[in-house]
User: What shape does this take?
Amino acid sequence: MMINVKGGKKFERNIAEKTIAWCIKRLEMSRIRTLEIYVSIESVPDDCYGYCENRDKINRSFKIALTNKQNLRYFVMTLVHEMIHVKQYVRNSWFGDGEPEAYDLQEELTDEIWKENIL
Assistant: This one.
């Protein structure tokens, strides 16, 4: 398993790494040894705070782009949202645009991160 975070400030990269590791465990993807997550903290299109791209045909390599132009809670929530999309790809449970499940779970999971003192 590989997590690679680039861009942003050091504390943002640290938060992203911890959040991804927590999501992998919480969303039950720990057994997938070939999982690769590349995160880029960068400018993203004005109509979103982040996005997830599947980089291969076997659903094991993903690029997540996040903007750092949001407060800490929304930064984490956006990353959680995109990790739910990763889970949808990995588990082949993507329905429609995948957004209802991601929106339904993003706040609940972000709250869990705070309650567990992950950050």
Q: What stands out?
A: The chain has one domain: 2-111. The chain has a mean pLDDT of 93. Strands lie at 2-7, 36-41, 50-54, 61-66. The first strand starts at residue 2 and ends at 7.
